[in-house]
Amino acid sequence: MSSADNSGNQDQKANQTSTIWGGRFAAGPSALMEAINASISFDKKLYKQDIAGSRAHATMLAATGIITDADRDAILQGLDQVEQEIEGGSFTFSAALEDIHMNVESRLREIAGDAAGRLHTARSRNDQVATDFRLWVRAETDEIIDALARLRGALARQAAANADTVMPGFTHLQAAQPVTFGHHMLAYFEMAGRDRSRFVDSRKRLNESPLGAAALAGTGFPIDRHMTAKALGFDSPMNNSIDAVSARDFALEFLASAAICATHLTRLAEEIVVWSSAQFGFVQLSDQFTTGSSIMPQKKNPDAAELSRAKAGRIIGSLVGLLTVMKGLPLAYSKDMQEDKEPVFDAAETLLIVIQTMTGMIDDMVPVKDRLREAAGAGFTTATDLADWLVREADLPFRDAHHVTGTLVKMAEDKGCDLADLSLDDMQSVNSAITNSVFDVLTVEASAMSRQSFGGASPLRVAEQAKEALSAVEKELAE
Ligand code: ARG
């Protein structure tokens, strides 16, 4: 933008713009107009989708007799060349030509001459950009769906390998009850499954074609929208031409799903940061997903987890940004909508790298079993088991059992020992019905093993679910 000034100067390129829409314009745009208007710096990402859309449109125009087969062939050949030039790096993108649609069309005109001028019959950039963008979001959605299956694979493998690795389960970040490391991993497996299904679901709604809606009202030419929809892999054409060019809820849904998914991953990332600290020592991270410090030689920092935790900020920002652009926009197209792309591009790229990094980190992560077991017992985590024992064996109402157990926890705390270290006499001084068998339920292993309710922490349940998880992932990867 260094050349932009507010003097209203028209440079050469700006004047060239008039070759596309300049019929009613006596002067080209000011440099500032060009600077605020041009989207080519980012929407060139859509070149493949734009060319695919033009191929489908040209083919349909010939099939319906709107253009000749000879013009179609000239257009298709020209589009092949444009695509090669872009991919080979020899294509010159011009800001004066505003966006990817006019850049491609203008070069096509140079290559294919008058035939190229017929390509835009019965089409507008409004339906064109809506089509391109849907195709792009669809491809990205597919990549994220695949990446989430792989993340679920890593979580399921950790779960299967650690179905009986006892660790503390937390509430309020205070040790609450023993669970297993596998159980904790499967919690994220479930989240990632719902995240994945959100993308699978929004993909279905997204997969309708705006092409042929033209500027907003449809067209008087006898086009076949079903044909172009099919050629581009859409399930059907969109029903309403005004909606077709105005709708961006497919992009909003993508961003909302991305924001939720990224938020889930921040919770896992945060736990990895905490767990890998010397104070917790629950897991070891691999060298591949940590960095050293330039001054402190002992350090192994969980940067990948920290960045995954942080990057959710951009994705949430993208969602809020686009919601704000769309809020209150009258139908049909307004140029505001050109601002839809950068947030989606950034969010997609960011989410993919976060998912992939987290997958690698999870795969490499080694739980420190002794430390996890030790922590699982600290903080009277089997107190609920003691209360449950009183309900089961001494027929106390749970509320009374809770009270008795609370008294025993206080006693252990005063003595500076664990519940299991209290003597039977100590126990009986609080409730005479307590017998020696109470000590069987006070180990962390017994506690975890007892939680056999469906979805519970018992190694039995976790092993079953981890097995199912692994086969679910296999199916997802084969889809
Ligand atoms: N670059 C524009 C966008 O991304 C393409 C559509 C332009 N339409 C128009 N009526 N000026 O939204």
Can you offer a commentary on this structure?
The protein is mainly alpha-helical and 479 residues long. The chain has helices spanning 12-16, 18-21, 31-37, 40-43, 47-63, 69-88, 100-112, 114-117, 125-161, 181-206, 225-231, 241-246, 249-275, 303-326, 341-364, 369-377, 383-394, 398-415, 424-430, 444-450, 459-478, and strands spanning 166-171, 174-180, 208-209, 236-237, 283-284, 366-367. It has a two-stranded antiparallel sheet with strand order 1-2. The longest helix has 37 residues, at 125-161. The radius of gyration is 31 Å and the shape is elongated. It binds arginine. Arginine (ARG) binds at residues 39, 43, 99, 125-126, 129, 333, 335, 337-338.
Sheet with most strands: strand arrangement? 1-2
What order do the SSEs take from the amino end to the carboxyl end, as H and E? Answer: HHHHHHHHHEEHEHEHHEHHEHHHHHH
Number of helices: 21
Mean pLDDT figure: 93
- The computed structural class is mainly alpha
What small molecules accompany the polymer chains? Answer: arginine
Instruction: Give a quick account of the main beta sheet: strands, pairing sense, barrel closure.
Output: 2 strands, antiparallel
pLDDT < 50 runs, ≥5 residues: 1-17
